[in-house]
Sequence to fold (101 residues):
Amino acid sequence: MPYSLTPRQEETIKGMLVLALPHSKIASVANCTTRQIRRIKANLLKHGSVRAPKVVRQGHKCKMTEEMEEVRILSFTFAERLIVRLWWSIWAFDWINISMK
Fold:
């Protein structure tokens, strides 16, 4: 398996591909294989970058689905409204008690 290319090699290959030089010439100058040149050319045409983006997401899968997130947001807003109403009623009750004294 060939070694990964350095950023300098990648830039050299990109520049030479723009000039439409033969793959064998590019491979000899950049010190890599013609297969790497073909893959880079395909990635540039398809993805606009030397490397293709990762297909599989890395890391742990999210334990909360979108539906669970929506329910959490809705219940949070309900709880938030309940807290505001309770706070308002407590404040109003205190204000009434103070004004009656």
About this structure: The radius of gyration is 31 Å.
